[in-house]
Structures are given as structure tokens and as C-alpha cells.
Amino acid sequence: MQSAIALPFSQTSLTRSNRVLGSTGSIFSTPRSLQFCGLRREAFCSSPSNHLTLRSDRVRIRSTRFQVSAAATTNGAPPKSFDYDLIIIGAGVGGHGAALHAVEKGLKTAIIEGDVVGGTCVNRGCVPSKALLAVSGRMRELQNEHHMKSFGLQVSTAGYDRQGVADHANNLATKIRNNLTNSMKALGVDILTGFGSVLGPQKVKYGKDNIITAKNIIIATGSVPFVPKGIEVDGKTVITSDHALKLESVPDWIAIVGSGYIGLEFSDVYTALGSEVTFIEALDQLMPGFDPEISKLAQRVLINPRKIDYHTGVFASKITPAKDGKPVMIELIDAKTKEHKDTLEVDAALIATGRAPFTNGLGLENVNVVTQRGFIPVDERMRVIDGNGKLVPNLYCIGDANGKLMLAHAASAQGISVVEQVTGRDHVLNHLSIPAACFTHPEISMVGLTEPQAREKGEKEGFKVSVAKTSFKANTKALAENEGEGIAKMIYRPDNGEILGVHIFGLHAADLIHEASNAIALGTRVQDIKLAVHAHPTLSEVLDELFKAAEGDAKIKLNTNEDDPRKWRRDDEKEPSVSKDLVVRSASMSSFIEGIYARVLSLVSRIFV
Questions:
Q1: Catalytic sites, residue numbers
Q2: What is the pLDDT of residue 77?
């Protein structure tokens, strides 16, 4: 059984072993109004169970294994004593995060894994994909002669060894998998091997005939690649992300079905390694899950200049693998009329149509739980809901299996939230504060609402929505790297300064987004965070400029001179030239800093001369 893990890109039932994969107060205010990591204020209430328990003296005890027998008629009654405080089904990123936090809280913990520790993210998802993207990024830079000449560098023709690239990805996955395993063993988490399932209230079966009990159970079984009907996957010429990460071949022409996170990242890899790519997207535009403005710019940079073409508004109704000397055949039909549109003949096809929860065979019927499109229904505290709409006592579900937000770090955050609850601390995770990233070159990142989502919310709830933007072209560090292509965009409420969403497209966008996500989690207002200081020259100043560009009724106005080039840009200005405004601001700042440097040098020369 693979653990519950979510891929950082976009997303059935299988009879094989449990394979799991994974595809959203002011900082200066008093603790009374502080919200930590999107938690409610109740999370700060003091109670004995909130104190950290050190486990350095913990004696590790292996659980007693019981044989399954005909006496299983007692499955419906909860046990009177328990083998563990917490059992986690699935040892992926979500399960791992929950297990480590549980041990920190003093809980005797076991984690069940039927495949390999790390789940999909580590073994067939976010980890090996980042290794391939690291290669594609370097290849893309070395192949860009104009870019290299701008640095005064001369580079001969770049090449690659396919097997060496594949080995890099595999070696990284192995290293991270071992790190996760060793971290749990070192802290005393019992790692149990076998397919896990719920046998009854507070009872779990794993392997062939082992039964254990626990006060609380977490299901963290993740997801698997979703393959639509009519598509025949052979693992060679018609593949999913599972197969693609092995990089057994680099086809001359590959069709990618779906233009979400998975599809975009693999298009980056394949085009850098020499493939031509054709996107097949069912919706009317590429990258439908992103903010429209970001999608438009990303398409201009990531798609149009590269060997990529695309078909939108069509379904791949049938895909046949290559065989007997014939290419992969793809039948396209209109997404609305279902009429035949075209037939493509390509060397390979990657199915990147999303992910499906892995929840079959988990014994959910034993606790009267009915899945919804395969997802396990939960409430805001990840407590499982049964077929009658009632909470199942002591049973939780995190990660891709519940479908709230199919990201590995979201699964981990949910697991930690559950552990907080079972140790007596009310903890509700704010999913709108959880960031996401697409690791293309350049990267895309986001947190919170898109602009259309925010405006719809504003219309319903009666508040105004404003937008601020900044450009990487005004950032000194980005220009030093010759990577000025990109923007940052913030959607916020001008009446109270609430940040509703932030979207970034540009150099290291995946790293920059966390200042915004933490601001949303903490409830930090724009008028407060715009006073924060950022080191110069760093990419973080892109966010600094973004926050300072915001206007609002509650703002602290630092500059009232309307003729000053540093004035804030209003959201209602006509098609503002973001880069021009910010270049002026950047030039002004540079002049200021140069003046300081000159004074310092003058002072030093007086002292030492």
C-alpha cells in the first residue's frame, strides 16, 4: 500500500496493492487576536494536553499481533484497551507528518504501509519530478545561446545522457525515502508492512491476518493517476506520470492530455530534452486552474516560444498504444457536441488528466462510510462522516483521499491538525492559506483565491475587491540573473486590508509565495505587511513592492506627494504600465542606496586615510 501523498501538480479503483498518490489579525496585533497557521483562536486556549511531551526516554514496544478468526463478529464494538494511541494507514508525506507530530505529542504511534515509505510524492511524484525539472532547467539555460552570451559566457552544444538523468531522479527518491523511514524509526514509530484496512471501530487489519487497535485512526492512502475511459495505457507509449518519471524514453513527439500542473511540468521536461509536445485540453483554454491573467502570461512564455502546439475544447475519446509499427492513435471529439474533430498520430501520449482517490478495499463499509466519487467525506476537522451524515468516532482521513486539497504539504498539514485535535487542542486548518506551485521555468505559484473567485465572493458578500501588481523587470536580482520575465499579483480588500489571494509567475516563484501564504494564515493586513523590511537586492523585494502597491481605506499613508514617482498605483488606473512604474521606483531606491554607500565610503576613507 502506498502512502497518502499528493503531487504538487494537477490530478479507479485498482486491485493492486494499496497504491497511493497525491495530482488551497495583524502580525503586530496582540496574541488575543493572533491566528496561527490559519487556526481559530480556541487553539491558543491553555490546557494540560497542550504541553509538549519529550519522548527521549520512550521505550519502543512492538505491538502484539492477533490472529483473525471467526470471532470477528465483535468488530462492531470498540475495544476496551488499545495497542496504540494512533494508527495511520499510509506512510506518505501526510502519514509521515502526522506520525512525527504524534510522537512529539507523546502518542504511541504505528504507521501501516503496503508498498514503500514515502508514497507517490517521494517515489513517483513531486520528488523525482523535481529532479527531472532540475535537469530541464539547466538544459534550457545551456541551450539559450543569447542568454549565455549576455553573461559573457561561451558554451558548446549541450547534451544529456538519458539513463543518467533517470538515475538522478531515482537516486533522489531513494535518498528521501530512506530519510523518511529513518526519521520515523529514530523517534519510535512502529512501521508495519501490509495493506491496511478498517476492520471496525478503532480496529485495523494489515497484512494477511494481523489485527491491531488504537484510540484513533487516520486514513492517509492518497490517490492514483486518473485515466479516462477509452484510453489504453501500456506503460510504454501511452503512459501516466508514474511511468513518465522513469524516463525510459524521450519520444520525438508526445501528446500530453491535460494542461494542469502535471502536464505543464512534463512539457517543460520533454521540450528541454528535445521532444515536440501537443497539449490536448478539454476546456476552452490552457491552464484552466490558474488565475486567468497568470495563465495568459505563462502561455506566452512557457508554450508559444517552445515546440508546443495545442488543441482546446476537445476530449481524447480513444487512445491506442503504438504496436505493429503503427504510431499512437488519438481520436479527438468536440467537448460540447461530441462530434469527431481530428485524429492524431504521435510517438507517445502522457495522460495528465488529474488524480483519483485510492480508497477501495479500505473496509469503509465496516464503519458505514460511503465514498463520494471515491473520496472519503470529512468535516473541517478531517473527521470522517458516515452514510447517515454522522461523525464516525475516532476516525479521520487526510490528504488526497478526502479531496479537500490534493497536495502533499496539505496532507501533512491536515495530519498535524488531526494530531492536535486528538491531544486535546482544537485545530482547524485554513486551506486558503496553503500555497501551491508549478515548477516550470520560470515557476508559477499561488495561494488563496483567483481574481474571478475573489470578485464573485465580493459580489455575494458585498465588499470591493482591488488588485495590485508588480513586475520582475523592476527587480535588481532578477535583472542580474537576466530573468526579468514575470509578475506578481495580489487580490485584496481595500476596506480592511485582507489579502484574498497572491499569484506569482517568475524566477523562484515557488519560494517567494510563502510570505504571502503566511500572511493569509496569520490574518496579516496589507497595511501592516507593507511596513516589513526586505533585504536588498533580493527577489523578495518583488513581494515588498507588491504589498506597497496596494491601496485601501485603512492604509498607513507614508507619502502624500502625488508628484512623487514612489506613489502607490491605484487599481482603477487605465492599463497601468507596471514595469514602467516600478522601474522608476527601483531607480529611485537605487539612487538612495547609492547615496548611502557613497557616504559610508567617504566616512571609511576619512577614518583610515
A1: 536
A2: 67
